[in-house]
Task: inverse folding
């Protein structure tokens, strides 16, 4: 079975979810583009979009329609060539509409898992629950005569565990998109112990067609991305708790968040990132990873406490940020949660004091946005960190400790064999987390 | 002609432009430009008739029948004649010609002349379909997604082949730089707020055939714009009626109009023959030679069209236009300043308004009203010229002006 035949019948499970909808979109575009090649004109391509609720599927179709239209508007130059033989399609508008129709004709939204029984490839993006994932994979596999291949989007469950408990004999691979899949360029590719070579090779071809950057990760819970992020988050939380011996915890949270975002020139501070991903998701991923880690305890009582109170972060379906450790106004953090008061305390009421304690930023400081997209990025960062390294303010100290920890986490991912080399760790953080520089750097020695 | 008025050219580049927010529509631009003129000519009672140029409101705004928008400007225009002209991007100049002919025929002493277009109602990829209406529809299917950029990309490609790509692109990049630098001097220009430092380097950005056309980049293109312009066309009698001294007006010395079969391709892609014909008629009818021109507003819908215009007028020999431009001869301090408020690339291109906007610019320059964009008009070269082109060198109007005495 070649690449195209493999893609003739595909299912995405959890298709209405955050990740599933993006995976569905990308796969639908790829399958439609294949279907429009002259040599495939007699083939039928089917992409089942399986999820549990009809109302979610309705929203999904609207989402797909809107996104496909945008995609078509961007590639109209190429689409005019694809539809050159269609004398009835003359204007760009005609062509864009036809493409949207063609994509929607490939996608079959349904709540029935049976749809997956004819598929040759199954993308799994249901919630991060090992038992549920195994149960569904097993159900499909035992009813499907094609010996289908499974592409799981799990963030933290070892693929070998899924392979063995579901009895797939290597017909599974970790194909770990980042959120949102349609925009994020990174895919972590994780072979289970016995993943078949054909399954792996197909992944590479598919990822290439989707214009993704593939970083191979070995099969350790959390892989590279969460392997770094979870430990980095725990460090930030513990640093805040350490500072809270001498100040209210919420002020310490504010300071550590600022150290990450400003002093370390990251796209956002660590508490904002936890909120973005969801306090519950972070806590859950830690709990899935933790049993697999022998020499460390990846767990935070502060996260437990936040969840107990019911402060979870995450995003509204509109994409707007929900309040978590921080409170947001039009996407900007404006207040921080105080677990004692059980309420948010506005930055205004204390930030000046904390900023003074941290000390000023190096004179050469430029925010992440200005650095990350500039041509002279490396030189800017070298100058900035050169200056920072000579400073002894509290902010500089915290930044140095933070960077050293991030560096150590990165190196341990390599020495533990999760990542094959330093470069892979850095690529994941640069592409998947939009960092301006990799954790394994020589900036602050 | 006198009493010119331009709205701002609204679209990308202007800080006040936000594609997600509601913007002024046809009504507002017609009223703004119309009232802008009426204020300078003593009000609607002095107007005998009106003409309004517009290209494609029928598709951009689902609106036809623009002649009946005129009385919106002022109740005093009710029951007076008005006409709408259409000749693609030359619609504005056709409105001017309609007004000029009426004054010459003595059917009117004061003609209120407007041009308007509101194009930002659709994304560029759909706007390309609408603008393709300036071409021949049976060619649309085989045309480029960006139909008109495709047409002028072909012209640029032919020019590259004949005279050298790098050579040509240098001239085009210089055209872009001049356009933006001039636009920065004119508060109504779409690129007025442009702050890019190395404009020529930007102009030299490599074309990207996968996303756009083969031989042009976006900086080679005019803007997608909303705007309205107005000017009054008056006889001597009309000037008196409105109390405008001749020195505040420009005299229309002559005009030349030429048309080419829309279904036919140009004989030579590196020549704008219809433009050359219209210019020749205008200059001959004015009884002047090109060396007497002090400034030109030409239809640079693409930088290559600007370069080709320098050849069509005769300032440069065939193939030498790119050099003429690259050497700075069309800059505001050059031999013959072109497009002194930015032209279509810098000021903007609200298609149906452009011809009128050009006339307003020439009126401003010749009567000393161009503000920061003012150039010096030498007594031995007192004439100004506008060239407004519809489609790919299909409908062209050239007009020669001189300050009134
Ligand atoms: N959100 C992220 O940032 C992110 C990033 C990378 C990987 N992941 C992983 O992707 C997976 C999905 O995460 P998500 O954030 O998209 O979650 P989500 O909650 O947004 O989506 C899960 C979807 O699965 C559906 N679902 C649940 N049970 C189902 C069943 N039995 N049958 C069919 N559909 C079912 C739900 O209705 C929901 O639409 C998880 O494994 C997660 O770890 C998430």
Result:
């Amino acid at each position: 079975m070649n690449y195209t035949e493999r893609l003739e019948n595909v299912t995405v499970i959890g298709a209405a979810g955050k990740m599933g909808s993006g995976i569905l979109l990308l796969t639908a575009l790829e399958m439609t583009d294949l279907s429009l090649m002259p040599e495939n004109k007699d083939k039928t391509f089917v992409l089942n979009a399986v999820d549990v609720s009809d109302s979610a599927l309705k929203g999904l179709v609207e989402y797909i329609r809107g996104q496909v239209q945008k995609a078509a508007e961007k590639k109209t130059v190429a689409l005019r060539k694809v539809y050159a033989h269609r004398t009835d399609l003359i204007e760009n508008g005609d062509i864009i509409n036809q493409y949207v129709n063609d994509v929607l004709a490939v996608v079959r939204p349904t709540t029935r898992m049976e749809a997956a029984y004819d598929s040759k490839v199954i993308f799994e993006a249901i919630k991060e629950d090992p038992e549920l994932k195994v149960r569904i994979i097993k159900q499909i596999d035992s009813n499907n005569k094609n010996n289908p291949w499974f592409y799981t989007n799990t963030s933290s469950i070892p693929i070998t565990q899924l392979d063995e408990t579901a009895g797939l004999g290597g017909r599974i691979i970790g194909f770990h998109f980042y959120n949102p899949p349609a925009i994020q360029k990174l895919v972590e590719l994780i072979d289970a112990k016995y993943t078949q070579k054909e399954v792996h090779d197909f992944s590479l071809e598919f990822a290439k067609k989707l214009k993704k950057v593939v970083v191979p990760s070995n099969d350790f819970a959390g892989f590279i991305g969460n392997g770094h992020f979870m430990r980095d988050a725990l460090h930030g939380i513990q640093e805040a708790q350490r500072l809270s011996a001498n100040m209210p915890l919420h002020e310490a949270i504010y300071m550590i968040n600022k150290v990450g975002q400003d002093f370390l020139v990251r796209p956002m501070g660590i508490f904002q990132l936890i909120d973005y991903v969801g306090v519950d998701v972070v806590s859950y991923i830690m709990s899935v990873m933790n049993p697999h880690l022998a020499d460390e305890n990846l767990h935070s009582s502060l996260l437990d406490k936040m969840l107990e109170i019911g402060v979870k972060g995450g995003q509204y379906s509109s994409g707007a940020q929900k309040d978590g450790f921080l409170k947001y106004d039009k996407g900007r953090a404006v207040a921080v949660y105080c677990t004692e008061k059980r309420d948010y305390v506005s930055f205004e009421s204390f930030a000046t004091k904390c900023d003074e304690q941290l000390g000023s930023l190096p004179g050469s400081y430029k925010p992440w946005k200005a650095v990350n997209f500039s041509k002279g990025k490396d030189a800017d960062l070298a100058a900035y960190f050169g200056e920072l390294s000579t400073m002894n303010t509290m902010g500089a100290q915290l930044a140095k400790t933070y960077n050293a920890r991030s560096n150590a986490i990165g190196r341990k991912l390599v020495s533990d064999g999760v990542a094959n080399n330093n470069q892979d760790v850095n690529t994941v953080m640069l592409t998947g987390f939009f960092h301006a520089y990799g954790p394994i750097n020589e900036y602050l020695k | 002609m006198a009493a010119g008025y331009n709205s701002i050219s609204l679209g990308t580049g202007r800080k006040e432009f936000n594609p997600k927010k509601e913007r002024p529509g046809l009504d507002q631009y017609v009223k703004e430009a119309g009232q802008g003129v009426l204020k300078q000519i003593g009000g609607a009672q002095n107007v005998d008739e009106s003409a309004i140029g517009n290209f494609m409101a029928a598709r951009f705004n689902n609106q036809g029948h623009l002649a009946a928008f005129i009385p919106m400007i002022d109740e005093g225009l009710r029951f007076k004649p008005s006409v709408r002209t259409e000749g693609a991007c030359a619609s504005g100049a056709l409105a001017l010609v309609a007004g000029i002919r009426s004054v010459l025929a003595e059917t009117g002493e004061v003609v209120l002349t407007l041009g308007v277009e509101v194009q930002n109602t659709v994304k560029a990829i759909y706007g390309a379909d609408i603008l393709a209406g300036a071409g021949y529809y049976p060619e649309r299917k085989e045309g480029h997604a960006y139909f008109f950029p495709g047409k002028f990309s072909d012209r640029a490609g032919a020019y590259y082949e004949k005279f050298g790509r790098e050579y040509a692109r240098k001239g085009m990049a210089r055209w872009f730089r001049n356009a933006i630098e001039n636009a920065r001097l004119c508060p109504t220009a779409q690129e007025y707020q442009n702050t890019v430092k190395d404009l020529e380097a930007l102009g030299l950005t490599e074309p990207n055939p996968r996303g756009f056309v083969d031989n042009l980049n976006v900086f080679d293109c005019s803007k997608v714009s909303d705007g309205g312009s107005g000017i009054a066309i008056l006889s001597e009698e009309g000037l008196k009626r409105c109390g405008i001294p001749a020195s505040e007006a420009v005299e229309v010395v002559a005009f030349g109009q030429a048309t080419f079969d829309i279904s036919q391709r140009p004989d030579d892609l590196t020549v704008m023959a219809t433009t050359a014909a219209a210019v020749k008629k205008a200059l001959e009818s004015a009884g002047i030679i090109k060396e007497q021109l002090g400034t030109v507003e030409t239809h640079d819908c693409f930088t290559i069209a600007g370069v080709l215009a320098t050849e069509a007028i005769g300032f440069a020999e065939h193939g030498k236009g790119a050099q003429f431009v690259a050497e700075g001869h069309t800059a505001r301090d050059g031999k013959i300043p072109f497009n002194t408020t930015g032209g279509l690339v810098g000021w903007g291109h609200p298609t149906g308004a452009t011809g009128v906007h050009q006339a307003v610019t020439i009126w401003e320059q010749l009567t000393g009203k161009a503000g920061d964009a003012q150039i010096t008009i030498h007594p031995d070269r007192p004439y100004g010229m506008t060239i407004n082109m519809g489609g790919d060198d299909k409908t062209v109007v050239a007009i020669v002006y001189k300050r009134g005495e």
